[in-house]
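Friendly challenge for the regulars: who can give me the structure tokens for this chain first? No prize, just bragging rights.
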Amino acid sequence: MSGLPPCPQCGSEYTYEDGAQLVCPECAHEWSASADAAPGGDGERVIKDSVGNVLQDGDTVTVIKDLKVKGSSSVVKVGTKVKNIRLCDGDHDIDCKIDGIGAMKLKSEFVKKV
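First reply, four minutes later:
Bragging rights claimed.
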């Protein structure tokens, strides 16, 4: 084709350019063309907590707000410590296990690094 990279989400080869973005017509995923231009994938996303501290895999964080657990009557209370987090892509960018609740994903805007 035209030498454009395949879609990182679905793997489709039919990507096209739209200004500074690359677009996949099959799954409608959009991403920055400049991140793919750098060889070796150096355009890694930096995830920060609610006060601007950079988070890394294995960090311990504290929840700063009561969070309702979707599909359950459980609530993750303010001050709950979450150990050994894993960072992932998506809207909910922290993957973790919380005692008494189990595995779940959190948004980085609702946690503070300890």
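The helical segments are 33-37. The first strand starts at residue 16 and ends at 18. Your move, everyone else.
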